[in-house]
Amino acid sequence: MKLLFSKYKEHKYIVNIFGLLIFITLISHLFRNHLDVINITLLHIIPVIIVAINGKLRSTLLIAFICVILLNFLHIPPLYSFSVHNDYHILSFIFFGVIGGIITYQAKNLDSQKKQNEIRESLLNIISHDLKTPLSTIQGSVNLMLSNSNLDEKSKYSLLEDINYSSQRMKRLITNILDSTRLSNKNIDIKHQWCDFEDILGVALDEFSQMQNDEKLIIKIDELSLFWGDNTLLTQLFINLLDNAFKYSKKGTKIYFEITNYKKHVKIKIFNENEIIDKEKLRSIFDKFYRAEDSNDILGSGIGLSICKSIVKLHNGKIEAIAKNNGISIEVDLPIIKKVRI
């Protein structure tokens, strides 16, 4: 029922257009003795214009075709026939499609500009909020250390940990913004080399505090041979997957990270307990700048998982998010395209 309602909302404008078309057909038919053909034609073009504003070319052409059929059958002589004997009427019918096509094209351009503005706004929000917060932490910790020379070693270490953690967050955020731009380039080439997943995981874990790794992370890795892929991109994949799990896992719960070796592919799974997200939202989780509605108090740009998706795609793999066991499991399959000859 929920799915049906969701589909209705998605195509609600089409349902409304058919309602409007029926209304116009009835009005035109009832008052056809008082209206010229040109007036009736103009009335029938209204649904075409409205559907074209939504930027859907196929829907526009469908409505234009239906309008032409109704107009021809009910109002163009000979009546109640699909025959057309006047070239002027044929040209009028073609105009339906041309007008609908032009408006659809313009609507698509406007939609594209709107999306670009949204991306710019999101980037500004990231810079103004997600960079400012860790920077404030660093400034606060440094000022505290400078103004208090009698701090004990434990307090100093704690403040240094805060500075390190905040600077790592800023570094990850800037790296993600730069990677997002780079991966948007469709001509990007990946630099294949032999990669060791254990080494990659070790480098990725260095990006997080030792306390985080020790307290929350449970790692299980199969015996793996070297993998033919892009070492830098795969390291970024691991960092972003871990960063996402650390940010969104429930307090006091564990994060499970697994790498399993299969005959033709390698599976990477990372699971953390979290609020259940419905399937519709799970499908959007890899979209650029997508953030869960209840995550405003969590620092994040919403581009980490979209970068993961791009990296996996460049390796001809697949990535999906699955809701299970009161949490989310993000699972990556990377095909083995080359094996080490020993």
Question: How would you describe this protein?
Answer:
The chain contains 12 helices and 7 strands. It has about 350 residues and is α+β, with helices and mostly antiparallel strands. It has 2 domains: about 1-115, no CATH class; about 195-335, Heat Shock Protein 90 (2-Layer Sandwich), CATH 3.30.565.10. It has a 5-stranded mixed beta sheet with strand order 2-4-5-7-6. Strand 4 and strand 5 form a beta hairpin. The model has no long low-confidence stretch (mean pLDDT about 85).
Going by CATH, the architecture of the largest domain would be: 2-Layer Sandwich
Shape: elongated
Q: What is the ordering of alpha helices and beta strands?
A: HHHHHHHEHHEEHEEHHEE
Using only C-alpha atoms, the radius of gyration works out to 29 Å
Q: Return the structural class.
A: alpha+beta
- Reading side by side through the largest sheet, how are the strands ordered? 2-4-5-7-6
Q: Would you give the CATH topology of the largest domain?
A: Heat Shock Protein 90
Indicate the mean pLDDT.
83
Oligomerization: single chain
Task: Give the amount of beta strand, in percent.
Answer: 5-15%
